[in-house]
Every structure is written in C-alpha cells, then in structure tokens.
From TrEMBL:
GO MF annotation list: peptide deformylase activity
Family named by the database record: Belongs to the polypeptide deformylase family.
Cofactor: Fe(2+)
Species this protein is from: Algibacter miyuki
Organism phylogeny: Bacteria, Pseudomonadati, Bacteroidota, Flavobacteriia, Flavobacteriales
Purpose of the protein: Removes the formyl group from the N-terminal Met of newly synthesized proteins. Requires at least a dipeptide for an efficient rate of reaction. N-terminal L-methionine is a prerequisite for activity but the enzyme has broad specificity at other positions.
UniProt KW Protein biosynthesis keyword: yes
Protein name, per record: Peptide deformylase
EC number: 3.5.1.88
Active site positions, chain numbering: 148
The reaction(s) this protein catalyses: N-terminal N-formyl-L-methionyl-[peptide] + H2O = N-terminal L-methionyl-[peptide] + formate
Residue spans crossing the bilayer: none
Cofactor binding summary note: Binds 1 Fe(2+) ion.
UniProt enzyme class: hydrolase
Alphabetic keyword roster: Hydrolase, Iron, Metal-binding, Protein biosynthesis
Length: 196
C-alpha cells in the first residue's frame, strides 16, 4: 500500500525517533509499504518519520542512482543493487574530508541544495530479521545512509544549509508546509486540509 509522505513542517520530522523491538506490530507489512511508497515517489531512501512514524527505521535502494551517467563506473557499481533495511541504527563514526553533493528529499519536494557530509561512515544497525551488523560505507552509499539517518535524528537536509541559503528557500518551504505545491505522489501536509 502506498502511504502518504509527510511534508516539511510536520512536527514528526523534527523529533528524535525511538528504537523498536522485534515484536513491533506488522513490521513486515510496514517495510513492504515503505518500499512501495519510496518506489512510487522515485526515491532512493525513506525513513519512518517521513510516513508519520517516530521510530528508528529507514530503508534504502540506491539502484536508480547507478544509472547516473555523471558517475564513475566504480560509483555506479557500488550503487547498483544496494538495498537495505536499517533498524535502530547508530552512526558511530564519520571521517574524511567533507564534500558537497546536491541533495533533495521526498518530504521537501522541488528543493535541492548542496549539502556537505563526510565520505566515510561506520554504522551499527539491525536488519529486517533483527540481526545485528556493524559496517563501513563510503561515497554516495554513505551519503544516502547519512541523509536517511538524519531523519531518525529529527534533522532535515535543510537544517545543514547556511543561514543565507535558508533565507533564500524560506518561501518555498512555507509553501510546501501549506500544501501549495504540485507533486506526483501522495503527501500529507501539516495543515491537514490538503491531501493528495
């Protein structure tokens, strides 16, 4: 089932999410619905807060990124088929020299800005079977993970912009929160009056 994606301005996007346990109700169905919702919106990642759930859960499928002709063959290979579920994730290390990449977000449609992030991360997480993993990721895969991880920490990519950039996009963000935007996927706006 395709779920509505929560728009910028909803308080759930600014909350630090809570861990879940193995007996979280209907987790398999939730994961299935989240993947379907993400694919329907042409996203490469989706976090539970983006569908209104303040829980530490996000998923990623970077395969669509692998078709970007601006990437090196090595980058394309690392992205192709990378599909994961992250439950109760904790980034334990970020290192390397920060680099900029133009990011967007399904909760903030039609806003894209350069965001600086470190290229290498170590993350501890549980997969969909609640098996524990500690892994290192780099480059664009690390960046997608960092972006989705920020969601479960109550942070949006727009929070990482300079005060000048924030002022420049303030009107567009206000319009998103009021539902004054055209999107081709279902969204839920903070004022609840406008639904798609």
């Amino acid at each position: 089932m395709i779920l509505p994606i929560v728009a910028y301005g909803d308080p759930v996007l600014k909350k630090e999410a809570k861990d879940i346990s193995k007996d979280y109700p209907n987790l398999d169905t939730l994961l299935e619905n989240m993947f379907e919702t993400m694919y329907n919106a042409y996203g490469v990642g989706l976090a539970a807060p983006q569908i209104g759930l303040p829980i530490r859960l996000f998923l990623i499928d970077t395969t669509p990124f692998s078709e970007d002709e601006d990437l090196t063959e090595e980058e394309q290979k690392s992205l192709d088929g990378f599909k994961r579920v992250f439950i109760n994730a904790k980034i334990t290390n970020e290192e390397g020299e920060e680099w900029a990449f133009n990011e967007g977000c399904l909760s903030i449609p039609d806003v894209r800005e350069d965001v600086f992030r470190k290229p290498n991360i170590t993350i501890e997480y549980l997969d969909e079977n609640f098996e524990a993993h500690t892994e290192k990721f780099e480059g664009l895969v690390a960046r997608v993970i960092q972006h989705e991880y920020d969601h479960i920490e109550g942070v949006l990519f727009t929070d990482k912009l300079s005060s000048l950039k924030k002022r420049l996009i303030k009107g567009r963000l206000s319009n998103i929160s009021k539902g004054k935007i055209k999107v081709d996927y279902r969204m839920r706006f903070p004022d609840q009056k406008k639904r798609r």
